[in-house]
Sequence to fold (364 residues):
Amino acid sequence: MAVVIGILTGFLCRMRMLRTDYRQYPTYPHGRVIHLSLGLIAAGLGAVAVPALLNKNYTAITFLSLAAQQFREVRNMERETLSKLDEMVLVKRGSTYIEGIAMVFEGRNYIVILSALLTSLVVLLAGQWIWGVLMGVVLVGVSGLLRTGKLLGDIADVEEGTLRFEGSSLYVDDIYIMNIGLKDNRDRIRKQGLGAVVTPKDKDSRITLSNLGQRQAILHDVSTVLGVYRDTGEPSLVPLIKRDLNDGRLGVFLIPEEKDSKAAIDMIQRVPVLESAVRMPTELLKRLSWRGRSNGNDI
Amino acid sequence: MGMTFEKAILAIVSTDREQVAGGAPIFYAKNKEQMEETAFLLEKILDGMVHELNSRTKIVVRHRS
Fold:
């Protein structure tokens, strides 16, 4: 009974954490099947571990390490697939984004193992399955919370910026983007281009925004929703983000299929903050000033 | 890895013979319209990007993506 409820909880956790949204990843039928079945296996492993351990069958723990190995494989698999697919799109995801997604897939399988383990433990300890069900409901709820991370809108302000040309140089507000030599392209950009300015809210987010992977993620996500007005071999019509060196603002130049600045800004605000792009320099600075030193020797 | 060029000038289009010489293929144009048109064609053919150095010279550059 403990095992069954454990598996069920784990599986439900995985289902709750698996969502195919506008990015269409995991891809709809088969990508989901893969991850749901892996989730089921993970849940099984977690759920079986507790009764096995209670029977003094300590070798069971080695199976968990085997599982960890397996799920690291999941991460590799995701990374490889996504990198391959990335070569075939007009606006790339970028390796930081891919790494982030792969990491999430691995991490979620561990969450599944853990929740299955906890549930079956509770059932065995309490001796009544109803406690397991309760635990399961709580865990599924919690895993729902883990599903979404921070969004760009939380760490930065996004406003519309005006695109303008100074001679052949393209600017978003006062941030230089690139030099466009052809009048034809300048006209296209005037007609179809959109500008936005992303202002970091604090020192930490300033560094996060400077990360190239984070910037590529912004471009990719906005382009998946609004489309891109370009084809291969049109480097002049590439959406681009440049940074203002003085204050860390980002000038976002977009060239979407449908020119809708409101939607573009909403989209930029909803871009996930990539885990690997986050830096916390203020944490160290706080600690150093707390200790009354400033030489930074104890990093 | 060896040596790789991140960017390369693929062609130069100019109306001013005095300004350009050397390495990359150079296309002289009689006037601005012709320069614009040549640069446009070269951009499409070479899949490069046209940049304007000044009002009389444009270059076609390949950016590695």
Remarks:
- Chain B has one domain: 7-63.
- Residues 7-63 of chain B form one domain.
- Residues 13 and 38 of chain B are 7 Å apart (CA to CA).
- Chain B touches chain A through 16 residues (CB under 8 Å).
